[in-house]
Amino acid sequence: MELTCNKVLTERITGRIETSVALTYDPLMDCTTTITVTPGKRIMLYVKRFDFEDLVDGECLDYFRIRDGDSGSSPILDPDLPICGYQIEDFNVSTSSNSVTLEFHSDATAQFRGFDILYTEFTPGMTSYPVLHIAGQR
């Protein structure tokens, strides 16, 4: 599923979202997508690709934030975000509620592959958590 800008996704308990199905994301994007799952559940995000423009003069020109909630004012889930550049290792992030807001911004100068994220809802207090991957890939 390509990034759906300025939308709220509520129909799925699992899914995939990426900046673009093309080779690179578009320039001058400002997208906010909120994923909301079943009340009482939480969301696990598996970030399997993360490839953005590197820091320029100490600043992220293209960046990505994950917010723990259903709005642009919800707390940023990871204090290191926004992040940019290239992330070698894939990583998991989980929310404290049933909503997560993804923010993506790109400038006009350079475009890269962007992100590819799988997500699923899970029940808080589970002793094991979902393992997210696409068959044949990791």
Task: Report on the architecture of this protein.
With 138 residues, the protein is an all-beta fold. It has one domain (7-122): Jelly Rolls (Sandwich). It has no helices and eight strands. Strands 1-3-7-5 form a four-stranded mixed sheet, with no helix packed on it. A four-stranded antiparallel sheet has the order 2-8-4-6, with no helix packed on it.
Briefly summarize what is shown.
The protein has 138 residues and is mostly beta strands.
Number of strands: 8
Structural class: mainly beta
Question: What is the mean predicted local confidence, pLDDT?
Answer: 78
Which range best describes the helical content: under 10%, 10-25%, 25-40%, 40-55%, 55-70% or over 70%?
Answer: under 10%
Count structural domains.
1
- What is the molecular shape? globular
Number of helical stretches of at least 4 residues: 0
Strand content range: 35-45%
User: How is the biggest beta sheet arranged?
Assistant: 4 strands, mixed
Briefly note the CATH topology name.
Jelly Rolls
Q: Could you name the CATH homologous superfamily? A: Spermadhesin, CUB domain
Low-confidence stretches: 133-138
Specify Rg, calculated over alpha carbons: 14 Å
Amino-to-carboxy terminus distance: 18 Å
CATH class: Mainly Beta
Order of helices and strands: EEEEEEEE
Main sheet strand line-up: 1-3-7-5
The CATH architecture can be given as: Sandwich
